[in-house]
Amino acid sequence: MPRRGLTGERLIGLFLFGLLLLTPPLIGAFDKATLVGGVPSLYLYLFFSWASLIALTALIVERPDPDEEIVESEPGADPDQGTSRAPRA
């Protein structure tokens, strides 16, 4: 039986990855008095972590599930098939 709803699982994984990125031990590794291009390394780390989480969220949400692509691409597949709607008069 094919698994459906991989988007939810991917979002949970991304949430856990975000928690890992923003834990105090990892943030503390970038909390140094070094400047990169005149900007503290902690600020750059937080900005790029935040931006990457947003970009990955957009990729996950906008990417169609492989199972949905197969169903939509089958020739002669009726999207209303299996519904119990009465025909319009």
Mass-distribution shape? elongated
> Helix and strand succession?
HHEEHH
Largest sheet geometry = 2 strands, antiparallel
Helix content: 55-70%
Order of strands, main sheet, comes to 1-2
Mean pLDDT, to the nearest integer, reads 79
Question: What's the tally of helices?
Answer: 4
Low-confidence regions: none
Kindly estimate the percentage of residues that lie in beta strands according to DSSP: under 5%
Q: Span between N and C termini?
A: 38 Å
Backbone CA Rg = 22 Å
Total strands: the figure is 2
**Structural class category:** mainly alpha
Task: Give an overview in words.
- Helices cover 58% and strands 4% of the residues.
- By secondary structure, it is mainly alpha-helical.
- It has a domain at 8-64.
- The protein has a two-stranded antiparallel ribbon with strand order 1-2.
- α1 packs antiparallel against α3 (41-62).
- The longest helix has 22 residues, at 41-62.
- The model has no long low-confidence stretch (mean pLDDT 79).
Short structural summary:
The chain has 89 residues and is mainly α. The protein is 58% helix and 4% strand. It is built from four helices and two strands; from the N terminus they run H-H-E-E-H-H.
Write the layout of secondary structure elements.
Elements: H1 6-21, H2 24-29, E1 35-36, E2 39-40, H3 41-62, H4 66-73
Antiparallel strand pairs: 1-2
